[in-house]
Amino acid sequence: MDTRKLKYFLAVVDHDGFNRAAEHLLIAQPSLSQTIAGLEKELGVPLFHRVGRRAVLSEAGKELVGPARLVMRDLDAAQSAVQALRGIRSGRLDIITMPSPGIEPLTSMIADFTKLHPSVVLNVSAAFTPEEVVESVRSGSSEIGLAGSPTPVRVPGVQVLELERQPLILIVNPQADSFTSGDSIQREDLGGHRLIASQRGSLMRWLVDDALAHGVKTEIVVEVAHRTSILPLVLAGVGHAVMPSSWAPLAHKSGLRTLLIEPVSHLDVAILSRKEDLTPAAQAFLAVAQRHASPGPESETTSRHR
């Protein structure tokens, strides 16, 4: 088995089929198919099931994805280490993030990282639960993961750097702003208001459901899985939205008001990585993350929404 075959295998995975992978690799599709067939013959198992024009990973293929990425990443690390001797820093860094940490602090960390290492290509993929982030880091699909959870993340065998605690805020619908002029509200103040809610299982949805369970007569008007829709919906006057404070800067730039919801609930944000065998790019990103880790996260993130 050579790295070219693994590169072609991952191209089919990442581009969801042979035709797009061949276009990306700038090779003929029959040549790609022949290479994958050769890899399957070497391993003695099929890596893909051909369903019409689609290529669906077999169980063996799913098992190969993580190790294949590790091999390619280690090769990139070796090349980067040699190039660094000539003053050249390059490579690729795979990151996975949940939506709110992907707004902040990831944006600020990427901005700082790319200034220091402009030749490193960052690939950022999405996850919706801490478990997805942990699995991606453990399998080697991603080197760096950002997760947010109601309690601090603790994962055996995974390095965890706590970054900050983001209090939950209300992004106020300007067409239904009957709140006081202060900077905060009580949960019972949500009564009588229409809310845009995240999907069940999120901390934001828990707060709304908890308020309903305690007799606060609020109304969920829209449930949103894709959180990029939330600010446009608030701007359109559909309802208010409960979100972590990482969304406050974007809300303010859009002309929206935010209010701290008391008693305060926090989203604990952490960065996850393997404990060893990290590429130079991943190590450099963790160094940037360390500078972003707040020594007093609660007070800092609480004031950030104002």
Listing every helix as H and every strand as E from the N terminus to the C terminus, the arrangement reads HHHEEHEHHEHEEEEHEHEHEEHH
Number of helices: 12
Stretches with pLDDT under 50, minimum 5 residues: 297-304
Principal-axis shape: elongated
Cα-based radius of gyration, to the nearest Å: 23 Å
**Helical content band:** 40-55%
Largest sheet, strands/sense/barrel: 10 strands, mixed
Number of strands: 12
Average pLDDT taken over every residue: 87
How much of the sequence is in beta strands?
15-25%
How far is the first residue's CA from the last residue's CA?
56 Å
Please state the structural category: alpha/beta
List the helices and strands and how they pair.
Blueprint: H1 3-14, H2 18-25, H3 29-43, E1 48-51, E2 54-57, H4 59-84, E3 91-97, H5 99-103, H6 106-116, E4 120-126, H7 130-139, E5 144-149, E6 158-171, E7 184-186, E8 194-198, H8 203-213, E9 219-224, H9 230-235, E10 240-244, H10 248-253, E11 258-262, E12 266-274, H11 280-292, H12 297-304
Parallel strand pairs: 3-4, 3-5, 7-11, 8-9, 8-10
Antiparallel strand pairs: 1-2, 5-12, 6-10, 6-11, 6-12
Helix pairs in contact: 1-2, 1-3, 1-4, 2-3, 6-11
Report on the structure:
This protein is an alpha/beta fold. Helices cover 43% and strands 25% of the residues. The protein has twelve helices and twelve strands. A hairpin with a 2-residue loop joins strand 1 (48-51) and strand 2 (54-57).
